[in-house]
Specification:
5 strands; five-stranded parallel beta sheet; 2 domains
Length: about 240
């Protein structure tokens, strides 16, 4: 009866990992020979692991990543132009801790989105909040939020992410409101968060893409000048895999 009261108390305190571990201890007679201190230590470890797993699931769900990529599965074939040392350095997530940005460019199908998501998942493993958006979709959501009054909430959500992934940058034409929104997003990243941007458009063409020279200077000064860059090369991986199939 005492054990049931203890389990009930743990659950009320939301110590679910500890409660589950205590139940397992009760069913494992080998553990009964351990000291009280050892058994308590095992319960505490179980609670830590449970909380870490719940946080990982929560961060993964809120990130809304396009693909479930991982850094362990990165394709380093020579034709792609990937530097293992650079990727290993990025996988440490120090660049996110320091509020730096990452730019991934290259033709369609070479794995820009996949690599960005792999690094995004790596950040989540480190306990960092991440949000993924196709750039065009983000502009649409900002416009919708402006109309229904939820714009402050959306901007707060974006600003809380330590890493904001903007996928397929440069595919849609920007109007004046888009440029202002982009400026706000980038400015909110300054000193507080990182961007990972994928684009088929070479960086030297970004100024013309933004359109307004003054805003382009301000935006690119914050986005590009101190960013890590990866320029992927080669043929579309989708075409290559299709041909092999």
């Amino acid at each position: 009866m005492l054990i049931e009261q203890t389990l009930d108390g743990l659950r009320k305190l939301k110590l679910m990992g500890m409660a589950q571990a205590l139940e397992h201890q009760g069913m494992n007679t080998a553990i009964h020979s351990l000291s009280f201190e050892d058994r308590i230590s095992m319960l505490v470890d179980a609670e830590h692991l449970s909380r870490d797993n719940r946080r990982l699931k929560r961060l993964t769900k809120s990130a809304r990543m396009k693909v479930g990529a991982s850094v362990e599965d990165i394709d380093y074939r020579a034709s792609r132009g990937l530097d293992k040392r650079q990727v290993a350095s990025l996988a440490n997530c120090d660049w996110i801790d320091h509020g730096q940005h990452l730019i991934l460019t290259g033709p369609t199908g070479v794995g820009k989105t996949w690599l960005a998501c792999a690094l995004g998942h790596q950040a989540i493993r480190r306990g960092l909040p991440v949000i993924y958006y196709r750039f065009t979709r983000l502009l649409e959501e900002l416009e919708i939020a402006r109309g229904d009054g939820s714009l402050p909430k959306l901007r707060t959500q974006l600003s809380k992410a330590k890493l904001l992934i903007l996928d397929d940058w440069g595919l849609s034409t920007l109007n004046n409101r888009n440029r202002q929104d982009l400026m706000e997003i980038v400015d909110d990243r300054t000193g507080g968060g990182s961007l990972a941007i994928t684009s088929q458009l070479p960086v030297p063409q970004w100024h013309d893409y933004i359109g307004d020279p003054t805003l382009a200077d301000a935006i690119l000064d914050r986005m590009v000048h101190s960013a890590h860059r990866i320029e992927l090369q080669g043929e579309s991986l989708r075409k290559t895999r299709s041909a092999k199939g």
